[in-house]
Amino acid sequence: MGTVWELDFYSRPILDEQQKKIWELLVCESPLDIRTKPESLFRYAEFCPNSTVNSIWLRTTLEEAIARAAEPPQKIRFFRRPMTKMIVKACDELGISAQLSRRTFTLYRWLQERMQDVYPQQPGYQGVAPNPSVQYQPQPPQPLPDALVGQKWAFVTLSAEAFEEMHEWDIGFREAFPLIGLGDFAPLPPETQIPGVVIFSPRAVPMAGWMSGIEPAFLKFNRNTPPRLLLETGESNSWILASIKDSKTLTEAENFEDAKRKAGMLHFLAIQSDPQSESFAGFWLMQELPLS
Known about the structure:
By secondary structure, the protein is α/β, with parallel strands linked by helices. About 20% of the residues lie in helices and about 30% in strands. It contains five helices and 14 strands. The chain has helices at about 55-70, 85-95, 105-115, 205-210, 245-260, and strands at about 5-15, 20-30, 45-50, 75-80, 95-100, 140-145, 150-160, 170-175, 195-200, 215-220, 230-235, 235-245, 265-270, 280-285. The chain is globular and about 60 Å long.
Protein backbone atom coordinates (compact mmCIF):
# COMPACT_ATOMS: atom_id res chain seq x y z
CA MET A 1 0.00 0.00 0.00
CA GLY A 2 2.92 2.35 0.57
CA THR A 3 3.09 5.07 3.21
CA VAL A 4 -0.26 6.49 4.33
CA TRP A 5 -0.72 9.71 6.30
CA GLU A 6 -3.69 10.92 8.33
CA LEU A 7 -4.33 14.66 8.26
CA ASP A 8 -6.38 17.23 10.15
CA PHE A 9 -6.42 20.93 9.30
CA TYR A 10 -8.90 22.86 11.37
CA SER A 11 -9.39 25.48 14.09
CA ARG A 12 -8.44 24.68 17.66
CA PRO A 13 -10.03 25.90 20.93
CA ILE A 14 -7.41 28.66 21.19
CA LEU A 15 -7.84 32.39 20.44
CA ASP A 16 -5.08 34.73 19.26
CA GLU A 17 -4.64 38.35 20.35
CA GLN A 18 -7.35 39.44 17.89
CA GLN A 19 -9.77 36.93 19.41
CA LYS A 20 -9.61 34.78 16.26
CA LYS A 21 -9.33 31.02 16.46
CA ILE A 22 -5.91 29.59 15.77
CA TRP A 23 -5.80 26.75 13.25
CA GLU A 24 -3.49 23.77 13.22
CA LEU A 25 -2.19 21.21 10.76
CA LEU A 26 -1.61 17.74 12.12
CA VAL A 27 -0.22 14.90 10.02
CA CYS A 28 0.77 11.49 11.28
CA GLU A 29 1.80 8.27 9.64
CA SER A 30 -0.86 5.57 9.64
CA PRO A 31 0.42 2.23 10.98
CA LEU A 32 -0.37 -0.60 8.59
CA ASP A 33 1.04 -3.42 10.71
CA ILE A 34 0.13 -4.51 14.22
CA ARG A 35 3.84 -4.72 15.16
CA THR A 36 4.44 -1.04 14.43
CA LYS A 37 5.86 0.83 17.40
CA PRO A 38 3.87 4.06 17.90
CA GLU A 39 7.02 6.03 18.69
CA SER A 40 8.43 5.12 15.26
CA LEU A 41 5.55 6.76 13.37
CA PHE A 42 6.12 10.15 11.76
CA ARG A 43 4.25 13.09 13.29
CA TYR A 44 4.15 16.78 12.39
CA ALA A 45 2.21 19.66 13.96
CA GLU A 46 2.12 23.34 12.97
CA PHE A 47 -0.17 26.13 14.16
CA CYS A 48 -1.61 28.42 11.49
CA PRO A 49 -2.80 32.03 11.99
CA ASN A 50 -6.45 32.53 11.13
CA SER A 51 -5.46 35.10 8.48
CA THR A 52 -3.44 32.59 6.43
CA VAL A 53 -5.87 29.68 6.32
CA ASN A 54 -5.82 28.66 2.65
CA SER A 55 -4.60 25.90 0.34
CA ILE A 56 -1.33 27.76 -0.32
CA TRP A 57 -0.33 27.70 3.36
CA LEU A 58 -1.48 24.10 3.62
CA ARG A 59 0.50 22.98 0.56
CA THR A 60 3.65 24.83 1.68
CA THR A 61 3.47 23.40 5.20
CA LEU A 62 2.80 19.91 3.86
CA GLU A 63 5.96 20.29 1.76
CA GLU A 64 7.88 21.07 4.97
CA ALA A 65 6.42 17.98 6.63
CA ILE A 66 7.33 15.79 3.65
CA ALA A 67 10.87 17.14 3.70
CA ARG A 68 11.24 16.02 7.31
CA ALA A 69 9.72 12.57 6.81
CA ALA A 70 11.70 9.46 5.94
CA GLU A 71 9.51 8.96 2.87
CA PRO A 72 6.59 10.86 1.34
CA PRO A 73 3.04 9.56 1.64
CA GLN A 74 1.36 7.87 -1.28
CA LYS A 75 -2.07 8.59 0.20
CA ILE A 76 -3.50 10.99 2.76
CA ARG A 77 -6.68 10.32 4.73
CA PHE A 78 -8.73 13.06 6.36
CA PHE A 79 -12.10 13.04 8.11
CA ARG A 80 -13.45 16.63 8.01
CA ARG A 81 -15.85 16.90 5.08
CA PRO A 82 -16.01 20.76 5.02
CA MET A 83 -12.23 20.86 4.43
CA THR A 84 -12.37 18.59 1.38
CA LYS A 85 -11.82 21.24 -1.30
CA MET A 86 -8.84 22.86 0.41
CA ILE A 87 -7.13 19.61 1.37
CA VAL A 88 -7.63 17.91 -1.99
CA LYS A 89 -6.36 21.01 -3.85
CA ALA A 90 -3.19 21.20 -1.75
CA CYS A 91 -2.54 17.47 -2.08
CA ASP A 92 -3.25 17.43 -5.82
CA GLU A 93 -0.63 20.13 -6.31
CA LEU A 94 1.83 17.88 -4.48
CA GLY A 95 0.85 14.84 -6.53
CA ILE A 96 -0.61 13.00 -3.54
CA SER A 97 -3.97 11.23 -3.43
CA ALA A 98 -6.24 12.54 -0.66
CA GLN A 99 -9.55 11.04 0.38
CA LEU A 100 -12.20 11.31 3.05
CA SER A 101 -12.00 8.39 5.43
CA ARG A 102 -13.13 7.32 8.86
CA ARG A 103 -10.06 5.11 9.04
CA THR A 104 -8.06 7.73 10.94
CA PHE A 105 -7.49 5.78 14.15
CA THR A 106 -4.01 7.12 14.95
CA LEU A 107 -4.97 10.73 14.28
CA TYR A 108 -8.02 10.39 16.54
CA ARG A 109 -5.93 9.24 19.49
CA TRP A 110 -3.36 11.99 18.87
CA LEU A 111 -6.09 14.64 18.78
CA GLN A 112 -7.51 13.34 22.06
CA GLU A 113 -4.06 13.54 23.63
CA ARG A 114 -3.58 17.12 22.42
CA MET A 115 -7.04 18.14 23.61
CA GLN A 116 -6.11 16.83 27.04
CA ASP A 117 -2.45 17.76 27.39
CA VAL A 118 -1.45 20.43 24.83
CA TYR A 119 -4.20 22.92 24.02
CA PRO A 120 -5.16 23.68 27.66
CA GLN A 121 -1.56 24.87 28.20
CA GLN A 122 -1.75 27.42 25.35
CA PRO A 123 -2.51 31.13 25.94
CA GLY A 124 -6.05 31.88 24.79
CA TYR A 125 -7.40 28.40 25.46
CA GLN A 126 -11.21 28.45 25.40
CA GLY A 127 -12.21 24.90 26.26
CA VAL A 128 -13.63 22.28 23.93
CA ALA A 129 -17.15 22.52 22.47
CA PRO A 130 -18.98 20.11 20.13
CA ASN A 131 -17.75 20.54 16.57
CA PRO A 132 -20.32 20.23 13.75
CA SER A 133 -17.60 19.83 11.10
CA VAL A 134 -17.51 16.07 11.54
CA GLN A 135 -21.21 15.31 11.62
CA TYR A 136 -21.63 12.82 8.80
CA GLN A 137 -24.66 12.68 6.58
CA PRO A 138 -25.90 9.10 7.04
CA GLN A 139 -26.45 7.26 3.79
CA PRO A 140 -29.05 4.51 3.27
CA PRO A 141 -27.34 1.12 3.48
CA GLN A 142 -26.63 -0.35 0.04
CA PRO A 143 -26.44 -4.05 -0.87
CA LEU A 144 -23.04 -5.41 -1.78
CA PRO A 145 -22.45 -5.92 -5.50
CA ASP A 146 -23.90 -9.29 -6.49
CA ALA A 147 -20.50 -10.69 -7.44
CA LEU A 148 -19.16 -9.97 -3.95
CA VAL A 149 -21.89 -11.38 -1.75
CA GLY A 150 -20.43 -14.01 0.59
CA GLN A 151 -22.07 -17.41 0.70
CA LYS A 152 -21.60 -17.78 4.48
CA TRP A 153 -20.47 -15.65 7.39
CA ALA A 154 -19.97 -16.03 11.12
CA PHE A 155 -19.37 -14.04 14.29
CA VAL A 156 -16.06 -14.97 15.93
CA THR A 157 -13.69 -13.71 18.63
CA LEU A 158 -9.92 -13.63 19.09
CA SER A 159 -7.97 -12.66 22.19
CA ALA A 160 -5.82 -9.54 22.00
CA GLU A 161 -2.69 -11.65 22.56
CA ALA A 162 -3.54 -13.76 19.48
CA PHE A 163 -2.87 -10.71 17.32
CA GLU A 164 0.77 -10.74 18.36
CA GLU A 165 1.23 -13.45 15.72
CA MET A 166 -0.76 -11.68 13.02
CA HIS A 167 2.40 -10.93 11.04
CA GLU A 168 2.83 -14.71 10.59
CA TRP A 169 -0.68 -15.26 9.23
CA ASP A 170 -1.14 -15.87 5.50
CA ILE A 171 -3.12 -12.75 4.49
CA GLY A 172 -3.64 -11.22 1.06
CA PHE A 173 -5.10 -7.76 1.65
CA ARG A 174 -4.60 -6.47 5.18
CA GLU A 175 -4.47 -3.42 7.39
CA ALA A 176 -3.93 -3.34 11.13
CA PHE A 177 -2.53 -1.12 13.86
CA PRO A 178 -0.85 -1.72 17.23
CA LEU A 179 -3.15 -2.56 20.14
CA ILE A 180 -1.63 0.22 22.23
CA GLY A 181 -3.22 3.39 23.48
CA LEU A 182 -6.79 2.24 22.97
CA GLY A 183 -9.64 3.27 25.23
CA ASP A 184 -8.13 5.70 27.74
CA PHE A 185 -4.74 5.31 26.04
CA ALA A 186 -3.82 2.33 28.23
CA PRO A 187 -2.45 -0.97 26.90
CA LEU A 188 -5.15 -3.46 25.97
CA PRO A 189 -5.11 -6.45 28.36
CA PRO A 190 -3.94 -9.58 26.48
CA GLU A 191 -7.02 -11.56 27.53
CA THR A 192 -9.41 -9.02 26.01
CA GLN A 193 -11.76 -10.74 23.58
CA ILE A 194 -11.89 -8.88 20.27
CA PRO A 195 -15.01 -9.65 18.22
CA GLY A 196 -15.06 -10.04 14.49
CA VAL A 197 -16.93 -11.24 11.43
CA VAL A 198 -15.58 -13.76 8.93
CA ILE A 199 -17.07 -13.88 5.44
CA PHE A 200 -16.67 -17.09 3.43
CA SER A 201 -16.86 -16.83 -0.35
CA PRO A 202 -15.44 -18.68 -3.39
CA ARG A 203 -14.73 -15.17 -4.69
CA ALA A 204 -12.73 -14.30 -1.59
CA VAL A 205 -9.80 -12.68 -3.42
CA PRO A 206 -11.79 -10.23 -5.61
CA MET A 207 -14.02 -9.48 -2.63
CA ALA A 208 -10.98 -8.65 -0.48
CA GLY A 209 -9.52 -6.52 -3.28
CA TRP A 210 -12.73 -4.54 -3.52
CA MET A 211 -12.89 -4.10 0.26
CA SER A 212 -9.34 -2.77 0.39
CA GLY A 213 -10.29 0.08 -1.93
CA ILE A 214 -13.32 1.39 -0.03
CA GLU A 215 -11.65 2.34 3.27
CA PRO A 216 -13.32 -0.07 5.75
CA ALA A 217 -14.08 1.93 8.90
CA PHE A 218 -16.19 -0.25 11.19
CA LEU A 219 -18.88 -2.91 11.45
CA LYS A 220 -22.15 -2.14 13.16
CA PHE A 221 -25.27 -4.08 14.06
CA ASN A 222 -28.32 -2.01 13.10
CA ARG A 223 -31.28 -3.06 15.24
CA ASN A 224 -33.87 -1.29 13.07
CA THR A 225 -36.36 -3.32 11.05
CA PRO A 226 -35.09 -5.38 9.40
CA PRO A 227 -32.05 -6.00 11.66
CA ARG A 228 -28.83 -5.87 9.62
CA LEU A 229 -25.10 -6.15 9.97
CA LEU A 230 -23.58 -3.11 8.26
CA LEU A 231 -20.11 -2.22 7.03
CA GLU A 232 -19.34 1.50 7.22
CA THR A 233 -16.73 2.75 4.74
CA GLY A 234 -15.21 5.93 3.36
CA GLU A 235 -16.81 9.18 4.48
CA SER A 236 -20.37 7.95 5.04
CA ASN A 237 -21.03 4.90 2.86
CA SER A 238 -22.88 1.97 4.38
CA TRP A 239 -23.12 -1.59 3.01
CA ILE A 240 -25.40 -4.45 4.02
CA LEU A 241 -23.22 -7.44 4.87
CA ALA A 242 -26.08 -9.58 6.15
CA SER A 243 -29.69 -9.51 7.24
CA ILE A 244 -30.38 -10.96 10.69
CA LYS A 245 -33.34 -13.32 10.31
CA ASP A 246 -33.46 -15.61 13.36
CA SER A 247 -33.33 -15.24 17.13
CA LYS A 248 -30.04 -17.14 17.51
CA THR A 249 -28.20 -14.85 15.10
CA LEU A 250 -29.91 -11.82 16.65
CA THR A 251 -28.43 -12.79 20.02
CA GLU A 252 -24.99 -13.27 18.42
CA ALA A 253 -25.25 -9.81 16.86
CA GLU A 254 -26.15 -8.27 20.22
CA ASN A 255 -23.20 -10.09 21.80
CA PHE A 256 -20.94 -8.77 19.03
CA GLU A 257 -21.84 -5.17 19.90
CA ASP A 258 -21.39 -5.87 23.61
CA ALA A 259 -17.95 -7.36 22.98
CA LYS A 260 -17.03 -4.30 20.90
CA ARG A 261 -17.83 -2.01 23.81
CA LYS A 262 -15.75 -4.12 26.20
CA ALA A 263 -12.81 -4.01 23.75
CA GLY A 264 -12.89 -0.23 23.34
CA MET A 265 -14.95 -0.58 20.10
CA LEU A 266 -12.13 -2.62 18.56
CA HIS A 267 -13.13 -5.41 16.14
CA PHE A 268 -12.16 -6.98 12.82
CA LEU A 269 -13.41 -8.18 9.44
CA ALA A 270 -11.90 -11.22 7.70
CA ILE A 271 -12.52 -12.90 4.35
CA GLN A 272 -11.75 -16.55 3.60
CA SER A 273 -12.55 -18.90 0.73
CA ASP A 274 -14.10 -21.47 3.10
CA PRO A 275 -14.18 -22.38 6.82
CA GLN A 276 -11.38 -24.95 6.37
CA SER A 277 -8.94 -22.44 4.85
CA GLU A 278 -5.84 -21.57 6.88
CA SER A 279 -5.26 -18.33 4.98
CA PHE A 280 -7.14 -15.05 4.68
CA ALA A 281 -7.90 -13.25 1.43
CA GLY A 282 -8.39 -10.12 3.54
CA PHE A 283 -8.17 -9.01 7.16
CA TRP A 284 -8.88 -5.55 8.58
CA LEU A 285 -8.56 -4.45 12.18
CA MET A 286 -11.03 -1.63 12.89
CA GLN A 287 -12.32 0.62 15.64
CA GLU A 288 -15.60 2.52 15.76
CA LEU A 289 -14.69 6.09 16.75
CA PRO A 290 -16.82 9.00 17.98
CA LEU A 291 -15.10 11.49 15.68
CA SER A 292 -15.33 15.03 17.06
